[in-house]
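Support case: user asked for a sample of complex input and structure output to validate their parser. Sending the pair below.
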Amino acid sequence: MTLTNDSAKSSRSGFAAAGGLDSIHGEAGEIVATGVHAWFGKRLVLENVNLVMEHQKVTALIGPSGCGKSTFLRIMNRMHETIPGAQLAGEVRLNGINIYDPSERAASARRHIGMVFQRPNPFPAMSIQENVLAGLRFNKIKTSKTSDIVEESLTKAGLWNEVKNRLNEPGGGLSGGQQQRLCIARGLAVKPSVLLMDEPCSALDPTSTRRIEQTIKEISHEVTVVIVTHNMQQAIRVSDYCAFFLAAENEPGRIVEAGSTTQIFESPVDPRTDDYVNGRFG
Amino acid sequence: MTLEMTPRVGAEGSESVGPVKIKPIRPREFKRSDIIVLGVTGLAAYCITWILFDQLTLLSGQLGFVLFCVGFFLGLYWVVNRQLFTRQVAVDRFVAALMTLGALAMFIPLLLLVVFVVARGWNLLSAHVFVATQKGVSELSPAGKAGVAHAIVGTLEQVGLAALIGVPAAVLTAIFINEIGGRFTRTIRVVVTAMSGTPAIVAGIFIYAIWIATFHQGYSGFAGALALAVLLLPTVTRGTEEVLKVVHQDLREASIALAAPEWRTVWSVVLPTARSGLVTSVLLGVAVSIGETAPLLMTVFGNKLMNSNPFNGPQAALPLMAYQQIKLPLQADIDLGYTAALVLFLLVFTLFIVARLLAGGRRRAPGFAALRSRIVNSSLGATEIEQDGFADTPIASYPPSTSTDERDQQ
């Protein structure tokens, strides 16, 4: 793994870096990605990505398929390195702490930076309640208030009223949209600082999509959300900031333009952004 | 099977009964008349074979008779259906008959095997057999004095120990191959595949050579268990590996993204998801080893007395006992051998049922629960409404199909 680790470089954010990732407790965090490159084998897929994802805001990553949005997302909670042959360079700082610092465990980064996937993936062998508590169990977080956490997480994910009477039924028995909200609840239960969402609505119907978007709006007050989406209308509806990724043929993906969602969609600086957000390609 | 497609039936249905009471059709229904056609064709095929085979020619042999009979039947069946219906129907039924006969050809030997063992072992089977051993049984003893209790104990202990040794090793091997991987994955998979081709007797000789001949440990149930574990390992490994492959990658990712360590992902997500399949592969391994005789010949040796200590001295085992008894000259001994075989059948059957209940007992598969809740929900509301509607206006669900059928016929 090629990894530029320059811990001498001072943190650009105002957060204190003392104590490492394990000292973070439940507040919404700010992620700063600096000079992020990514390779699959020898192929460079992402080049020099610099992006600040402000805390308590929703940042949308938009762009056509294959431009490295998902790769970038997966770099931010160290999921990229689980793919054989994947390499990266650059640094990602959560509240000023480099998650790729050799002294940090991958699990600590994932503990504070949760993820919701494209396809709903509740654990089929667990009940709804066990699914929500899975993260606590995996991280050996002991708590006596499990039922409170279950209720709180499911309420935040907008699922509590639908499942409160069948918490012990398998999670796989829910509808697709409910399963995705269960996955969001599962991600929220460990009180992460950031929640990454990789096209969370692309496998869902319009009604479920609306519920999820509503959920994103609600949770963004306590957790920073970064969402990859192909749906431009969705980006307008849910996000505060937007980053437009683009990869020319046989070239790695780069950020063309980033800024507030209003600016990106109403007065884009780069002509390519203008073409993309107005549906002229992609 | 589209007998109802004939114009007459459709015309009758629509003209005489009127539009209110439309007779529903089942396009591929196999009606009573079809059963009669089938029966008569079968009888005719038998008679023709009898005349040709036994009366007109000098052919003989039961196998030839059956083959000729099947051939004549298929030919006649095609001709009869071709005459009565359309070519499409005839082809349809001919192929259906061929497939059914093929299935029977597979199923009948299996059934005969069970019937044979049950028939031969039945007369000695009693409650006494399960508690008695062959202690003090001589050629002069009355039939029915001996039992197989010692062999049941032996088999259970040997297979239990074999599973205790083999199953964890096999599951860990499968987890290594499928979940962890590394430079040796391919080598290990090849070794496991090669192991599954090991002749059972070689496993027995191997354990004999090492455990008994080299280390002078003597015959024991444990030596047999070691030999059985050698046979059980590859079966369970391959089975488990296949089951683990089916567990969706998304679930592993979800677990990793929740900061679970690798062992946690395997233990709490992958294995529980694959539980039902795991039980099946373990059962397959146990089924392979429980019926093995060859590896036991040189390791547990056999015993006419009860020896419940698997670590010391020769033990009996059901398959070994069946093999040893059937070689004996006296009918009473041979019968006891068949009884041992029958008891082995019953034991395997019981074990499978118990294992299935244990696997499915704690929590049912999610798909099943979803299906069940859907049935419950629909039976509470939706179905009732539908049925009420159906009772008032029986036309409701059928007109589309009936009308298209009628249109086709005109």
